Predict the structure.
Amino acid sequence: MDKRKKNGLSETVRRYGKGRKSFFYTTLLFSAIYGLSSILPYYFIWKIINALVRGAISQSLDTSLIVHYALWIVASQLIGLIVYFIALASSHILAFRVEKNIRKEAMAYVLELPLGFFQNHDSGVLRRLIDDNASKTHGLIAHVLPDVTGAMVVPICLVVVLFLVDWRFGLLCVSGVAIAFFNMATLLQGSARLMMDKYAQASESLSANGVEYIRGIPVVKVFNQTVESFKRFHDSILDYDKHAKNFVNFCRPAMSRYTVSLYAPVLLLPLLCIFLMPGSVQPVELFVKCLFYVMIAILFYTSLMRTMAINEQLNVFNVTLARLDTIFSQNKMIVKEEQKKKEEGIVFENVSFTYPSKDEAALKDINLHFEKGKSYALVGKSGSGKTTLVHLIARFYDITQGSLRMDGKELRNIENDELLKELSIVFQMNKLMKNTLRENITMGGDFSEEEIKDALEKAGGQDILERMEQGLDTMLGTKGTYLSGGEIQRVALARAFLRKSKVLLLDEATAYADPENEEVIQQSIKKLREEEKQRESVIIMIAHRLNTVKDADQIILMDEGRILEQGSHKELMERCETYRKMYEEFTRSIEWRVKHA
Ligand code: ADP
C-alpha cells in the first residue's frame, strides 16, 4: 500500500490497466511534447518583437520574416492541439480500462468476503465506495494524466531558458520564486499546520453533523422541534466559522507575501533593465530581452501554479486509492484442503467467537451437535448469542476459537458457494431484489412453474401472486408492486421451500408482520419445518415465542453467550427453573393479550 501511495499512478496502471498499459507511456510522451509546444509561441513572439524593434531602428521592416515567425506560431499551436488530442485519447482509453478493472476486481473481491462484512457495511455505502472511487480514478487518469509530464517539463525548460538568454534577468525571476516558496513553506509549518488540522476537523465534523441533522429531519418534524434542538449541528457550524476565520486571518499576510514575491520580479525587470542599460554594448537587445523576460516570467509562474495544482490532483488520486484499499484490505475467506471427519450434521466444538469490533466474546466455549433430521430451537434473552450462533453456521464470520464442522468438514474449509448451497436461510432482514417475483423466489435456480407456485402457496403467498398483474413475471419494487414486510418474509419462506437444502436456518421473525400476516407466517414455518424434517434436514430456529418451540426435538437455552441448558420441552420444564419461569411468563403474557384483545 505504501508503494502504491508513493507512486499511485503508475502502480494503478500496472495493476488495473491490463492490455492498455502502453497508453500510459503514450500519454506521458505526448503530454511532454504538448508542454514543449506551448512554450514555442513565446519564443517566436520574442523573435517578432526583435525584428520589429530592429526594423523600427533601421527603418526597414522585414515583413516576410515576421510572417515566417507568425506561421511558426500557428504551426506550433496546431501541433500542440494534435498532440494534446492524442494524449487525451490515449489517457481516456487507459482510463476506461482501469475503471472497468477496478469495478471487476472490487466486485470479485467483495464476493469472497464473509457475509458479516455486508452486515456491518451498508449496501449503499459499499456501492458508493466502489462506484465513486472507480469513476474518480477514471476522471483523474483521463483528465490529469495528459497534463502530468507537461506540467513537469515546462517549468524545467523555462528555468533553463531563463538562465541561458540572460542569467541576470533569470536570477531575478527565479529568486522571486525561491522567496515565494520559502514563504509558503513557513506557512505550512508549526502553528499553521495545527490551525489547518483544526480547520479540516471542523469541516469534517460540520459535514458529519450535517448528515445527521438531515437524517433526523423527520423526527424534528414529527416532534415539532426547532433547529436549535440539533445542538451539535449548530455548535459545529459555529466551530467551523471560528476555525475558518482563524485560518484565513493567519494565512492572509503570508499569502500576500507569497503572491508579492512571486510577481514582484515582473515589476523589477524594467528597473533592472534601466540599471544595466548604461553599461550595455547593445541596449536595444537588452530592452527586447527585458520584454521577453516579462512574458516568460509570467508563463513561468503560471506553469508553476499548474504543477502545484496537478500535484494536488495526484494527492486526491492517492486518497481515492486509499479509499478503495478499505475494500481490498478486508480479509477474504480462506479455504484449505482437509481430511473430512466421519460425522454428520453440524458440530460446534469448544467454539468461542468475538466480534471484530468488540472485546468481550459473544459466544463462549460452545459445544453442540446439530443432528440430521432433528429440529432445534434456540431460546434465551435478547443479546444471549442466538443470532450470532446461527450467523456462524452461515459463515457471516469465522469462529475465533475451537472447531465448527459441517458433515465432518471444517466450515472455513468449505467453499462459500458450496456452503450456501447447503443452507436455506430465513432471517429477520430479508431483502428483495429489483427483479421479477419469479427471480426473487428461485434466486437464479432452475425450477418449473409448478414448483415455484407450489412453494409460494406453502409459504402462504397465494394472495401475493394473485395481486400481480403479470403473475410470476411481475417486476417487484416498481409502482404498485411493493411488498410489505410480512409479504417479503413469505417470499423468503417460498425460497426456503424450493431450495430443499440440508440445513434450514430460521429466525422466527415476526417483527415486521401484522397479526394476520403473523398467523400465515407461523403456519407456513410449521409446514416448512415438517417438510424439512421429512427430508432429514437439520433445522435450527431462533425462537421468540415459546409456544412454537414446544415440539422441537431439542431446545437450547442460551445466556450471555453460553449454553445454560439443553433438552426437550418436557425435560427442560422438569429440570430447568429458568426455562420454566420463561415459559410461565410467556404463557401469562399470551393470556394477558387474549384477555385484552
Ligand atoms: P440474540 O440473537 O440472542 O439477541 P446476538 O447474537 O444478536 O443475541 O448478540 C450477542 C452479542 O453480540 C450481544 O452482546 C450483541 O451486542 C453482540 N453483537 C451482535 N451483533 C453484533 C455485531 N454485528 N457487531 C458487534 N457485536 C454484535
Remarks:
- Residues 119-120, 355, 357-358, 362, 380, 382-388 surround adenosine-5'-diphosphate (CB under 6 Å).
- Confidence is low (pLDDT under 50) at residues 1-6.
- The chain is about 65% helix and 10% strand.
- The two ends are 63 Å apart (CA to CA).
